[in-house]
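Tutorial, part two.
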Amino acid sequence: MPLFTTFTEPVRVKYISTILSKATIFNVLIAILTLVIPYLICYRMQGFWLILETFREQPQVLFKHQALAILEVKNADGTQSNLIWTTFPGHRSMVDSKVFPFIRSREPDVNYDAVKDYLDIDITFPLQKDESVFAAHIVLLFEYKLKTFTNLEMESMVYAGYVAGSNGSSYEFTGDLSLVQKQPLWSRHYDNRFNNDVVPRHSLNSKDYSLGKIIKEYAARNVSTTLKNKYELWTTSGSSYTKEFSIIGKIMYTEDSYQCWAGIWQMLKWAWIQYFCVFIVVYSILRAFQRTVYKARLFETVLVVPWEKRHVQMNF
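Running the prediction step on this input gives:
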């Protein structure tokens, strides 16, 4: 009758030595190398410690109905002047302007997820008979929030402008509202460092409403927004003068990427996965080397096998 293996069991062989012996020192050295070598390999390969994390999220954006618009016009006698319209109380008290534009804006939620998807805005300025527009500038203020991976709340701004060589009847622009970071955000932390006025609305200092000053100070912030994927269209007038001028804009609140400092648990999780993969390989190699050394009897030890039951007394 043929025979076949029904069960196998490994034989465990012991190599016994004293605590203060070469074999013990060798074992301690192997244990240290088993722990240290995987760390050194992972560390030298770069990316062992996860410092930054990148996330994607559609921000919660709301137009605050705060704006500043400036039209640069030429009069019939060749002189130039500015038509200024603003919602800032401090600026309105200083500007003697009789500009009363017609404004339409809407922020629809296309996919009904309780997050606005874009802003449509149309501002139409009536003009005098002898006025022609050759440049337009507009500043719009928004409430900007990130909620999923970080808790950021801030007031953000969008600037759009165009300087043309001929008089126009409208200026149109479209683009994506995009986050600009000069430093990472804090993961899972509430951040309201930039939730303050981009433009001091009640200031009585005319320099605070200078476009150059507003743009420079806003660009210096560590976290801000800008228009990306931007397209502009300047429509020229068919005659020397037009009755009205329109600024038409569409700003899309698209899903955006941003970076955060990695939390301690994310760092440990990322490092442990890499360390464990290398540890298995290093452990297997050093274990095989350790087995070879003991089988070669390079150290003075007592060999104990299961079928030899005896009392071992160390005399060396």
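Residues 55-261 form one domain. In part three we will examine how such features are distributed along the chain.
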